[in-house]
Amino acid sequence: DVDPITARRGLALPAAACSCAPPPPAAEAYAQASAVFVGVVEQREEADGVVAWTLRTGRVLKGLDPVSGERAVVVKSRAMSTACGRSYTEGTPYLVYAGENAEGELTDNLCSRTRPVTEAGPDIEALGELAAGAAASTDEAGEAAAAEEGASEQARAEPSVPAGDTTAAPP
Predict the structure, then answer these.
(1) ∠ Cα 43 47 49 (to 5°)
(2) 53-99: per-residue pLDDT in tens?
(3) Which of 58, 79, 129, 161 could in theory staple to 168 by disulfide, Cβ–Cβ 3.0 to 4.6 A?
(4) DSSP of 49-108, one letter per residue?
(5) CA 39 to CA 95: how far, in whole Å?
(6) pTM for this model (two decimals)
(7) d(Cα 1, Cα 16) in Å, to the nearest integer?
(8) Which residues contact 21 (CB under 8 A, 6 or more apart)?
C-alpha cells in the first residue's frame, strides 16, 4: 500500500512483488526438483540481473553426479526478490531444491522449498525416509527378481509332470 500523501504527490510507483503458492511437501518438491542437496554458500557473482551462487555441496540427495568428497556447484537466481530471486547467506548451510533452466544450469527462486538446514529438519527426515524407502523397494525388487529367476532355473532343471500322468517315474 502507498500512503495517501505520497500518492497525491505523484511519487507512488506501482508495487512489484513476487507471489508464490506455498511450496509443496518435501517428497513432492524432491520429485519436481532437478537436484536436491545440502550446500554451503561460498561465493556470489551478479551480472545482468542474475546472481550465480557457488555452493560447496555436502550431502547430495538427487541430481548431481555422486563424487567422493565435496564439490562446488553453481545455482543461478534472479537478483531481485521482487522477481522471486533467492538470496542466500554466505557460510550458511542450505537444503537446496534446485530446478534447471533451458541451458541445463541449476536454478532456484523464492518459491522453492529451499531453506537453511537449521529449518529443514522435517524435510531432511522425510527425504531420508524417501531415500531409504526407494533403496528398500530396489532391494525388494531385486530379491523378487532373483527368486523368480531361481524358480525359473529350478523349473528348467526339473522335468514337469502333467497332472494325472501316472507313467512318470517318482523323483
Answers:
(1) 110
(2) 999 998 888 888 755 555 889 999 988 888 888 889 999 999 999 99
(3) 161
(4) TEEEEEEEEEEEEESSPP-SS-EEEEEEEES-GGGTB----TT-EEEEEEEE-TTS-EE-
(5) 7
(6) 0.66
(7) 11
(8) 111
